[in-house]
Specification:
five-stranded antiparallel beta sheet; about 290 residues; Hepatocyte Growth Factor; 3 domains; 22 strands; signal; alpha+beta
């Protein structure tokens, strides 16, 4: 995985800063763990495997998606830095610090990757308990059911992983991969998948609308209301019966899914895709 490594003088300076915040001999050594995974005012006295600038809320997610990272520390050094660490460790190995803004945590998945484990795709472009080992170019908090659609509507995303970290996070990835590149994990709630149509958006292409306000090979950006697995022919009807639904997109995702959307739109808001099975439409009367 590509990570940002900081060597030499920068590492010495950061190490010195962290060292001044440690409080191993302080009277209060109690660490208040949140969900048994992370806490404030704590650190691990273990070497860093990688150092990445990021906001505090994404440090744990970065650790989880980085191969071999098992625990981490975040500080406000350089406007926010995530120190990712490797090795067998538990929350009992953490030490209390004097900095209330410092965060430390453990990756919620122990023995994360299941080697030599077959992934059962069940004929779909997504499945459970899997991940891809490459870095994410975009991380978005979302429900698991929305992660595949987020990939399809955020070029150049070609594959993705969703996990329950931070209440639900979608990791969008790019590059030439296949299902064979996925790795099995021991998290039955984790989802990974490939975008069934690479380079899905066709720029400067005209959407050809039918008289019934539907079209093929098209999509609408965002404004998702809800989604349901259904046949393509039923998507328009489903949207018309759903309060607030004003437009929709249907795709082959998850065996056939109707993505119902809200807000004022027109035909001009739709964009062309290279998937001839995809359909989008507008409901005249909601």
């Amino acid at each position: 995985m590509g990570v940002l490594l900081i060597f030499g003088i920068a590492g010495i300076i950061i190490g010195s800063v962290l060292g001044t915040r440690s409080n191993n001999s302080g009277a209060d050594t109690t660490i208040n763990w949140k969900g048994g995974m992370w806490a404030f005012a704590c650190d691990f006295n273990t070497p860093n495997m990688a150092v990445v600038p990021t906001e505090s809320s994404l440090c744990g997610a970065k650790c989880i998606e980085t191969l071999n990272c098992t625990h981490f520390t975040w500080t406000d050094v350089n406007n926010g830095t995530c120190f990712m660490k490797a090795g067998n460790i538990s929350t009992e190995d953490a030490v209390r610090t004097t900095d209330p803004t410092m965060i430390c945590g453990v990756a919620y998945l122990g023995d994360y990757i299941r080697f030599n484990q077959t992934i059962d795709w069940q004929g779909r472009d997504w499945t459970y308990a899997c991940d891809f080992s490459d870095d994410s170019f975009l991380i978005i908090r979302s429900a698991g059911a929305d992660c595949g659609e987020l990939c399809l509507t955020n070029p150049p995303c070609t594959h993705f992983m969703w996990s329950k970290v931070l209440g639900g996070t979608c990791f969008l990835k790019q590059g030439n991969v296949t299902k064979n590149d996925a790795l099995a994990t021991n998290d039955a709630n984790m989802v990974c998948g490939v975008a069934y149509a690479k380079n899905v958006v066709l720029l400067n292409e005209t959407v050809e609308w039918n008289i019934n306000n539907t079209a093929v090979s098209c999509d609408f950006q965002g404004n998702d209301l809800s989604n349901n697995q259904t046949a393509q022919a039923d998507c328009s009807i489903l949207c018309s019966k759903t309060p607030l639904c004003t437009h929709f997109t249907w795709s082959q995702y998850s065996g056939g899914t109707c993505f119902m959307k809200k807000g004022n739109v027109s035909r001009d808001d739709a964009f062309r895709t290279n998937d001839s099975t995809m359909m989008c439409g507008i409901i005249l009367t909601v």
